[in-house]
Amino acid sequence: MLHLGEDVVIPYDKIIAILDIDILSQAEINKEFFQTAEDEGFINKISNKVRSFIITTDNDIYLSPISSVTLKARFEKRYEV
């Protein structure tokens, strides 16, 4: 399970992507994607401070206060023995 902040954890196998929130401002298509997800009710805001977002196989998008670099490191740590 990956801890996304506050009391929110999701199974590793549900994660499609872990992205930095700044990517949303880099292209119009990114803004449109996010706006559609918000309009459809797929956005789950964990905290007022948002540093990354996580897309899952359940069609949920989590806005996390934890950086994408930290979340990626946590995700990859599950493979360490």
List the helices and strands and how they pair.
Layout: E1 2-5, E2 8-10, E3 15-20, H1 28-39, E4 43-45, E5 52-56, E6 61-64, H2 68-77
Parallel strand pairs: 4-6
Antiparallel strand pairs: 1-2, 3-5, 5-6
Description:
With 81 residues, the chain is an alpha+beta fold. It has one domain (2-77). 27% of the residues lie in helices and 31% in strands. It is built from 2 helices and 6 strands. It has a 4-stranded mixed sheet with strand order 3-5-6-4. A hairpin with a 2-residue loop joins β1 (2-5) and β2. The longest helix is centred in the middle third of the chain and has 12 residues, at 28-39. The radius of gyration is 12 Å and the shape is globular. The two termini are 16 Å apart. The model has no long low-confidence stretch (mean pLDDT 90).
Order of SSEs, N→C? EEEHEEEH
Low-confidence stretches: none
Give the CA-CA distance, first to last residue. 16 Å
- Cα-based radius of gyration, to the nearest Å: 12 Å
Residues in helix, %? 25-40%
Mean pLDDT: 90
Number of strands: 6
Question: Can you list the strand order of the major beta sheet?
Answer: 3-5-6-4
Which range does the strand content fall in?
A: 25-35%
The gross shape turns out to be: globular
Number of helices: 2
Q: Quickly count the domains.
A: 1
Structural class: alpha+beta
Task: Sketch the major β-sheet.
Answer: 4 strands, mixed
Outline of the structure:
The protein is built from two helices and six strands.
Based on the model shown, name its key terms.
81 residues; 31% strand; alpha+beta; globular
